[in-house]
Structures are given as C-alpha cells and as structure tokens.
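User: Fold this, then the next.

Assistant: Folding the first:
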Amino acid sequence: MKRKGALLHLLFLSMIMLVVNVNCKTTITVNEKHPDEKNVKWVVKPQFDDISYFREGLAKVNKDGKWGFINKEGEIVIPPQFDEAVDFSEGLARVEKDGKWGIIAHPTLFPGKKAK
C-alpha cells in the first residue's frame, strides 16, 4: 500500500501541466508541481453553476439551470438556454428544451449564423 502511494506521489510530482475541475465551478491550469495562487491561471472565471470539459473547443456550462457553451477564451458562444445538453461530438450536440430534444451544429460549421 505504501508503494502505491509513493508511486502516485511521484507521478503527480513529475507532471508539468495539470488541468483540474474544481467543485464543478471552474477549470484552472496548474503549471507547477505544487499549486498555489501564484501558479494558477484561470481558464474560465468562476461565473457558472457547472462546467464540463472542453470538447471540440467548447465547454458545456450551466447558469441558472440552463445549459449553453463557451469557447476556450471563456466567451459565451451559445447562450445558456437548454434544459439539458450533451457535449459536442463530430460537430453536433444533442440538446433538450421544453421537453423536446434536438441537435445543434458546432458554430464553426456555419460561421455566419448567430446562436439565438
């Protein structure tokens, strides 16, 4: 058991970059072996109730019970408006609004169209 703990500790210390999801509130990037305030770079400022990992350049976010999507700069690309949402895969994401499921396209597929 001690050996397993030592191996995990060694693995952690050997990592250069670690992306963490803190309490499902925000994502931070830690660039040092031991995280502290000086070494933290906020990827997304804490403004959402929940956030998923980035998939195809977008992360699913929840604000006030509605789901939407942000880009890696933290900008809202698809405003929170869905009751449920599934991460993008191959340019498409399943979403549910008012009990009806549908599919939305990744914004880069139709760059001239604005999300409603």
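Now the next one, as you asked:
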Amino acid sequence: MIYQNVSRLCKQRGISISRLEKELGFGNATIQGWNGKWEPKARSLSAVAAYFGVSMESLMQDAPDDDKSVAQEESNKTDSKEAVRRDA
C-alpha cells in the first residue's frame, strides 16, 4: 500500500521512483523494496511525506478510497499554495 501511494504521487508529479530516491538521498531500490520486501523506516517515510506535502498517515492508508485521500491531500496543498500566491 505504501509503495502504491508513493508510486501514484510520483506519477502525478511526473517523476520516477528512482529520481525520488536520488533526490531524497536514498539508496537505489529503497522505495521499490517497500513493495513487499521490507517496511520503510519512519525517517524515510517522513522524508517522502514531506517531499510530497502529504501526511505519513495518508501514505499508509490501505482503504479503497486511497486514491482519493492521497490525491485530495495533495490537491488541497496545491490549492493552498495558489491561494497564498494570489494574496501576495
């Protein structure tokens, strides 16, 4: 579930998982290993959440509405940034 959420966010941003790993200073295939091989460390999960501007909890959700909650959280963050720009 975590890997799928991260993968979805990468696709929404137009970046590869490999690029995300490099930008965050992770080893090669670290995030890909979250696809069933091992669980992420809290520090790594926190870094990914901060990168995308979402909560760690949203990355860990496994409900059918996953797509909506992670995407909605990212959309809300983007809307907030745009509102700040308009007010500036």
